[in-house]
Write a structure and sequence with these properties.
Blueprint (H helix, E strand, L loop, with lengths): L3 H31 L15 H55 E7 H9 L4 H10 L1 H43 L10 H8 L4 H31 L4 H15 L7 H4 L8 H4 L2 H23 L6 H12 L4 H8 L2 E8 L23 H16 L6
Antiparallel strand pairs: 1-2
Length: 383
């Protein structure tokens, strides 16, 4: 039999053996982990790493796939960005090209004054339109030549008319000065005194008083005659001229010159509706037309006052023709093409010789203007 001491020794040895066995198995497991491809050891379960390897592989594949997708996405974005930049660049180039083309294109406009000038030389509107549409550039050159030529003729004729009118006015003034105004012829008081003074002084005093009263009555009658003459209305010819003037400035052809000539409001006079410059511009046209009309009569040619106004307008408005064309592009016919810039003739408006000495005040200017209009038309603007 085994004694108690022997059992204790056996238990100690057994525990030692178990401990060695466990260490051996643990070592085998570790070896299996480190060397998964080695053969299984007896009594040691092999630690499989295949699943872990597969999982790792899958994770790697997923990560690689994600990286590829990210890289592809970045590449696509870069490519798209480059494509967009190229497209934008092309669009910008196209737009710039279109803008350049638009800049090179200038709209041809037939100025109203050129149109009227061609009408003065006898061209019908249809002929003017055909000529302009056929070759705008050449047409504008030709029309400008006619316009400037017509203005030159108008100015020469007006100068002739002004000279003739000035001579007529001087002759009229001299005739008026020579004409003696009728004076009051009363009783010869000296003769009355010589005859009755000493014998009948009362009668002499009565005669003197009656003579003075008669002189007062005579002066009053003469004043009434002058007022009556001044209050006489304009003649039929003057009425026609005034209506022609009003119609001219209110016509459609003058709409493009609204800032230059102004516009009269309904129920208001010229001096109430127009500025001083606008009133002066209208007066320049009227005086130029009157001078041209007189010049044509001196040559034995009778022209309508409306035609004289149209010609005068072409002369007076010539300096601002370029401004009117540029700001309003006003004309009856328009055509787009590459082209030129239309310039005015550059002539200065004819100075009004009758108004060299002007009242500097606005009120004085308006009053003088009214008198000048009345001299031509027989009426003031408000009548």
């Amino acid at each position: 039999m085994t004694t108690d001491a022997g059992k204790k020794q056996l238990d100690a040895d057994q525990d030692f053996d178990i401990t060695d066995e466990m260490e051996a198995k643990m070592q085998a497991r570790l070896d299996g982990v480190i060397k998964p491809d080695d053969a299984d050891l007896e009594g040691v379960p092999r630690l499989e790493k295949k699943n872990d390897s597969k999982d790792d592989s899958k994770d790697d594949e997923k990560n690689d796939s994600k990286d590829d997708e990210k890289n592809d996405s970045k590449d696509d974005e870069k490519n798209d960005s480059k494509d967009d930049e190229k497209n934008d660049s092309k669009d910008d180039e196209k737009n710039d090209s279109k803008d350049d083309e638009d800049d090179e294109k200038v709209e041809y406009v037939l100025p109203e004054n050129y149109f009227q000038a061609m009408r003065h030389v006898g061209w019908e509107p249809e002929r003017i339109k055909e000529k302009f549409e056929e070759d705008p550039e050449q047409a504008l050159k030709d029309f400008k030549f006619y316009h400037d030529s017509q203005n030159y003729i108008t100015q020469q004729t007006s100068d002739l008319g002004r000279t003739q009118k000035a001579a007529t006015e001087r002759a009229t003034e001299e005739a008026v000065k020579k004409e003696e105004k009728p004076e009051f012829k009363g009783v010869d008081l000296k003769a009355v005194e010589d005859e009755f003074g000493e014998d009948n002084p009362a009668a002499v005093a009565i005669i003197k008083a009656m003579n003075e009263n008669n002189k007062v009555l005579y002066d009053e009658v003469q004043s009434l005659k002058e007022v009556r003459q001044q209050q006489q209305g304009p003649s039929d010819e003057q009425k026609v001229i005034w209506n022609t003037i009003v119609t001219h400035f209110d016509s459609d052809s003058m709409k493009g010159f609204g800032e230059f000539y102004g516009k009269t409001e309904s129920g208001k006079n010229w001096d109430q509706s127009l500025t001083g410059a606008q009133l002066q511009a209208r007066m320049n046209v009227i005086h130029e037309a009157d001078a041209y009309h007189a010049g044509m009569k001196l040559q034995g040619k009778d022209v309508e006052f409306s035609g004289a106004l149209n010609r005068a307008h072409l002369v007076i408005s010539a300096p601002i023709q370029e401004t009117i064309l540029r700001e309003q592009l006003h004309g009856k016919i328009r055509k787009r093409s590459k082209g030129i810039t239309v310039k005015s003739s550059g002539r200065k408006a004819v100075d009004d010789t009758s108004s060299k000495k002007k009242d500097t005040s606005e009120k004085g200017f308006i009053e003088k203007t009214k008198q000048r209009i009345k001299k031509i038309t027989g009426r003031t603007p408000e009548s």
